[in-house]
């Protein structure tokens, strides 16, 4: 399988990706827990059907010490006992924020309020920005059919 556009060779694609990476870097430097960030990246990518990003972020999370048991449970987090209340609130916000087209009212107040119980305003800003940035990465990769499976942890620095 080969991507429709080679992002590494395309000058324009490179510019776009650098901007997305810059936004992601701001989130990385925000103080939002790296574990929470990886959980959200994986869940958003699962929902959006981005195999490349699921591959990348499960491998990055594993390299950072996340357990296989928790990673296997992300897609069914509501039934799983392995996540903290804060992680559950982040995953709920990630799902609602990713599926905004499915709900006429957007993110329900109850989901936002639960997230606000666990995260500061800056962390909420980072979390919502992360959901948006991951969705952008996911859509780019899905549209160009970026192959999944060969990612190596740390591959992009």
TrEMBL record:
Domain Carboxymuconolactone decarboxylase-like residues, every copy: 18-96
InterPro entries (UniProt xref): AhpD-like, AhpD_core, CMD-like
Chain segments annotated as transmembrane: none
Pfam family, one: CMD
Top-level division of the source organism's lineage: Bacteria
Keyword field: Oxidoreductase, Peroxidase
GO molecular function annotation: peroxiredoxin activity
Protein name: Alkylhydroperoxidase AhpD family core domain-containing protein
């Amino acid at each position: 399988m080969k991507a429709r556009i080679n992002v590494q060779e395309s000058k324009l694609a490179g510019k776009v990706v650098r901007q997305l990476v810059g936004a992601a870097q701001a989130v990385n430097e925000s103080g939002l827990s790296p574990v929470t960030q990886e959980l959200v990246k994986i869940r958003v990518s699962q929902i959006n059907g981005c195999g490349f990003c699921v591959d990348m972020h499960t491998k990055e999370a594993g390299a950072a010490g996340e357990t296989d048991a928790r990673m296997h449970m992300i897609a069914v987090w509501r039934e799983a006992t392995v996540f903290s209340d804060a992680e559950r609130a982040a995953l709920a916000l990630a799902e609602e924020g990713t599926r905004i087209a499915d709900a006429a009212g957007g993110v329900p107040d109850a989901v936002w309020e639960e997230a606000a119980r666990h995260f500061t305003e800056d962390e909420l800003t980072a979390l919502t920005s992360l959901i948006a940035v991951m969705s952008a990465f996911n859509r780019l990769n899905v549209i160009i059919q970026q192959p999944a499976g060969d990612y190596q942890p740390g591959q992009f620095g």
